[in-house]
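Hi R.,

As promised, here are both runs. First protein below:
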Amino acid sequence: MPLPKPHGGRLVNRTLSCERREAAEKEAKELPRLKLREELLSDLRNIAHGIYSPLEGFLCQDDFENVLFEKRLADDTPWTIPIILDISHEERERLELQEGDTLTLCDGSGREIALMHVESIYSYNKEEFAEKVFLTTDKAHPGVAKVYELGELLLGGEIEMFGEVEPPFSRFYLRPVETRVLFKERGWRTVAGFQTRNVPHLGHEYVQKTALTFVDGIFINPVIGKKKSGDFKDEVILAAYETLLCNYYLKENAVMSILPMEMRYAGPREAIHHAIIRKNFGCTHFIVGRDHAGVGSYYSPYAAQEIFSEFPDLGIVPVFFKSFFYCRKCMTVVNEKICPHGEEFRISFSGTKIREMLLRGEVPPPEIMRPEVAEVVKRWENPFVS
C-alpha cells in the first residue's frame, strides 16, 4: 500500500526559489503592508509548506461559502475549516486595497515574509460562520468568540512566502515533504496519524499502540500554538512525549513532529480538517477518539466519528476508538467491547481529574500515567495555559 497522494493530488509549495525570492523581496518593500498575528502566521506557513494542500492561499469568496455550506471547496474537494485572512474596513482604507492588488504580509516585528495576490475582498456573516462551523453561536465557545473578534472583511488569494516563519520548538518540526521521505526510508507503507493537545496518559498510549498492531508506524503530531485556558502548555506536552517515546516505544516505529496551528475546537469539522492534514504528511490512517477536537458539551461524544460517513472520498482511513479505561480486574487498559467488569473496577482517563491532581501537586497513579511522564509534568509549577 503506497503512501496516499496529497489532498487534491499534489503537495503544494508556495515558498519561493532563490531566483524569484530576491525580486519578490524588492517588490515587497514598495507595496502596502499588513502585519499578521501569530495564528495567521501559522496558517501562512501551513499553506506555503503544503500542510494545507491543496490550498495555495487564503480562501476566496466562492471557496469560503462552499466550505461553510457544503464542507467542500468550490471544485468539490473535501474541506471543512475556512482558512481566512481578516481585516477591518479601516485597515482596507489605510491600505487603499482593491481586488487585483498585491500585498506584503509581515510578522509581528514588521519583517516582510510573503506576498499575497489579492483576488477577492468580501464581507461575510459572522453568526452564519459560527453556526455552520461550530454548530453554535454561543460566545462562550472559544471558536465562536474568536469569529466575533475578526475583522469585517476577508481577503482571498494566493501567497508566495520568501521569509522563513520559524515555528516555536522548531527542532521538532518536519514539513510534509520531509515526513514523506522519512516514512519511505523506514519502509512504512501504512502510517497512523495521532492528533493531540494533551500530555500522554495510558489511554493515549493504548490507542497508539493498538493502531501500531496493524500499521507500520505511528506519527504523533501535537498541535503547538494558541489554545484555550486550561490546556497543557506546549513545552509540557513535548517534554512529556519525549519521555514516553524514549522509554516505551521502539524508535523505528514512532515519529513525533509538531503541528504549529491554532486549535479551533470545531469538533466534527475539525476532525476532518485534522485528517486531511495528516494525509498531506503521508499518513494512510487517522485516529479519531471520543470527543475529538471538542470543547465543553457542544458536540455529542462521537460526532467527530460520525461525520466521516459524509466523506467517502477523503483518501485517508479513519480509525475509531470508543471509550477506554483502566480495569482493576483486567489489570490493564481496556474498552467496553472487551471488558466484562462493572463500573466499580474502572478508572477513567478524565482530563479534568488529571488536571486537578496535578494542580494539587499529586502524581497521577501508574494506572493513569507512566511515572516517568508524571515526573516530567510535575517539573512545572503550573503546566497549564492561563
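And here is the second one, sequence first, then its C-alpha cells:
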Amino acid sequence: MIAFLRGRLITKAPPVLIMDVHGVGYEMEASMTTFYQLPSVGEEVFLHTHLIVREDAHHLVAFINEAERSVFRLLIKVNGVGPKLALTILSGQTADEFYHCIHTNDIQGLIRLPGVGKKTAERLLIELRDRMPELNASTDEIKQDAVFIATARPKQEAISALCALGYKPIDASKMVQAIATEDKSCEQIIRLALQGAIK
C-alpha cells in the first residue's frame, strides 16, 4: 500500500495529476477539492494516497489531507458507491462539509451533489451516520495557496474534466457555457460550474 507521496508536481489536468518522486512518475486521480489546493506545476507537494487494485489495472487516488482520504474510504464501502462517485462527491464538498451533511441528516445537501440521487443520499445517511469518526483534520492543515495554471483551451478542458467526473457531455457543456469564462483557468471554470450545479 502506498500511503503518501512527496514530490514535484509535473502535470495538472483534472481529474488527473502526475508527480515526479525521485525520477518515478506517479499518475493519480484526485477530487476537485484537492485540485483547488495544489501548488503550481514544478513545485513540491505532499499528498495522501489510496491504491485501488482491479483485475485490469491499478489506480492511485490522491488527497490533499487525511480527512478527505478517510471520507473517501468510507464512501467506497457504501453499497452502490464506487471510487468514481466518491471522487465526484468530494469534488462537490470538502470532507468537513460532507461530514456535516451526514451528522445533521441534510439529505437535500447530499442530493445537490453531482451524481447523488435521493436513494443514494438516503443510503449514505443510513450507512455512514454511525461509521464516520470525528473529523479533526481539515483542509487548513495544508497551508498551500491555490495557484491555477491558465491553459490555451480552458473551456474545453473544463468540459472534459466534468465529463470525467460523471456528467454527460451535453450537461457539462451547458454548465460551462452558463458562466463567464473569459480570463479564467480550467480549474476556476470547473469550480464555478460545480458551485452552480449544487445551488
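A quick note on the second one: The chain has three domains: 4-63, 66-134, 154-197. Let me know what you think.

Best,
J.
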